[in-house]
Amino acid sequence: MVFSIHILESRIRLDNSWREKYKIPFYKGLKKRRYFEEFYVQVKQTKLHRAVVLMGPRRVGKTVMMYQAIQTLLNDGVDAKKLIYFSLDTPIFTNIALDELLTYALAINKTTLEGCYVFFDEIQYLKDWEVHLKSLVDTNRKTKFIASGSATAALRMKSLESGAGRFTDFFLPPLTFSEYIDLNSFNHLLEEVEVDFWGFKNFYKATNIEQLNQHFCDYINYGGFPEIALSKEKIANPEQVIQKDITDKVIMKDLPGLFGIENTLELQQFFNVLSYRTGEVMSYKNVSTETKTDIKTLKRYIEYLESAFLIKVLHRVDVTAKRFKNITQFKAYLTNPSLFTGLFGSVKDNDERFPHLVETAVFAQYLHQDYKYLRYASWKRNGNEGEVDLVQVSPNFQKVEWAVEVKWSDTAKANKLKFFMKKNGLEKGIMTSKTKFINGSDLLIIPNSVYAYMVGKNGV
User: Fold this and answer.
1) What is the 3-state secondary structure (H, E, C) of 58-103?
2) Spatial contact of 53 and 122, defined as CB atoms under 8 Å apart
3) Fewer CB within 10 Å: C terminus or N terminus of the chain?
4) How crowded is the C-beta side of 286, counted as CA atoms within 13 Å?
């Protein structure tokens, strides 16, 4: 369908309402995520001639962050006419080149492109977007371009292919537990204490562990998505919002569109299995049998789901942190535990699946850091067998830097963890609990909710 120029210009004016009002009232009350300042530095950076590409899964606040950047630019004295925004998922913009859209916007604003900040939201909806954006960057050296997109797979893949030296990728992850606590003003439930422990600049204890655990449970169910977690109004049917707006669109629309997947029901079934068994040790053979899908296809699906930032696979090391040559087992974690809610409904803290979701939530806090060398340990040797949930190894796999055993219990034993620590020369390890806190000589026992908060708080 071809729209008239009048309708097209009306839409551009609607998208750029601050040109007359110099403010964006409908985003005024939303608090900024912890990543905003770092993102804004990239927006303002002009020494390196690059576009900023804001990537991330659906519904983590990318559009809000772009609007907040525009408002901050206005507050910093940038002329409103020099701020241009397009929401490219709007049907009226389909199949219109970026430079053509800019021509209309510049005519409306009665300005030139020099000195402009141009925001392209949901840029993956434009075919060959990376070619168009690279051309704009190359030919307009005094203009700053900022793009965003939810289809992380396409953005990562294509920005690497065509945007080398022209794009700066900025990843916005799901909400961390520390952000959830801080943005909801639940900080009074924690207090900073002086504890000398490796890896933590700031250490915390709970002032009310029961209340903190309740918020941790809420975070697991809904907290990964700012729109739901931070809403002043209680959202009706949040499970449906997560499923329809996030899971279904990625599985049924984004991934098939990017990779030409024809059997979307098979992909959905596979994702359901991985989601239900998040945090469990699985084998390719057993999952292949369970889903009636060949192993080669399963590995391809895993690649797709990781590209879309729905899951993260954790690989296995043995009791001495050595890699296995033949990879037959793996763990797959949901990158956001709240995705489980969208598929299977919310869970209570006494549900049989809850301990796995606790482990998933703890793991998810590390996605905001460098998790390249994060593994899990599993061994069966000379009559001794065991598993440690999270292990950080050195880049050369010559030593273990730290180890964490995740438990949703106050009575769990740490025998396997201590055996692993002894084998790898670790002086101290971490075991999480439900409510217990003990800073022992060789073991830190700490509630999951406190530990998750500290990982996020110290990692940014």
Assistant:
1) CCCCHHHHHHHHHHHHHHCCCCHHHEEEEECCCHHHCCCCHHHHHH
2) no
3) N
4) 11
Give the C-alpha separation, 62 to 246, whole Å: 14
Could you identify the residue written with the tokens 């606590």? 181
CA distances from 358 to 322, 347, 352 (A): 27, 11, 11
Instruction: Kindly report the pTM of this predicted structure.
Output: 0.89
**Buried (b) or exposed (e) across 63-75, using 16+ Cβ within 10 A?**
bbbbbbbbbbbbe
Each residue's pLDDT tens digit in the chain (460 positions)?
556 788 888 899 888 887 666 567 666 667 899 999 999 999 999 888 899 999 988 888 999 999 999 999 999 999 999 999 999 988 888 888 899 999 999 999 999 999 999 999 999 888 888 889 999 999 999 999 999 988 666 666 666 666 667 899 898 989 999 999 999 999 999 999 887 766 678 899 999 999 999 999 999 999 988 888 877 566 677 788 888 777 778 888 778 877 778 888 899 989 999 999 999 999 999 999 988 889 999 999 998 898 888 999 999 999 998 888 778 899 999 999 999 999 999 999 999 999 999 999 999 999 877 778 999 999 988 778 999 999 999 988 789 999 999 999 999 999 999 999 999 999 999 999 999 999 998 999 999 999 999 999 887 5
Burial class (CB in 10 A: 0-12, 13-18, 19+), 264: middle
Q: 437: which 2 tokens?
A: 């806190």
Please say whether the beta carbons of 428 and 420 come within 8 A: no
> CB neighbours (10 Å) of residue 454?
24
Interior angle at CA 238, CA 448 and CA 182, nearest 5: 45
Neighbour-count burial for 407-443, b at 16+ CB within 10 Å, e otherwise? bbeeebebebbbebbebbebeebbbbbbebeeeeeeb
Which of 208, 204, 182 lies closest to 193 in space, CA to CA? 204
Say which amino acid occupies 148. S
CA-based end-to-end distance of the chain:
46
* Strands in 357-408 per DSSP E: 374-381, 384-393, 400-405
Helix axes 98-109, 129-139, angle to 10 degrees: 50
**Which amino acid would we find at residue 385?**
E
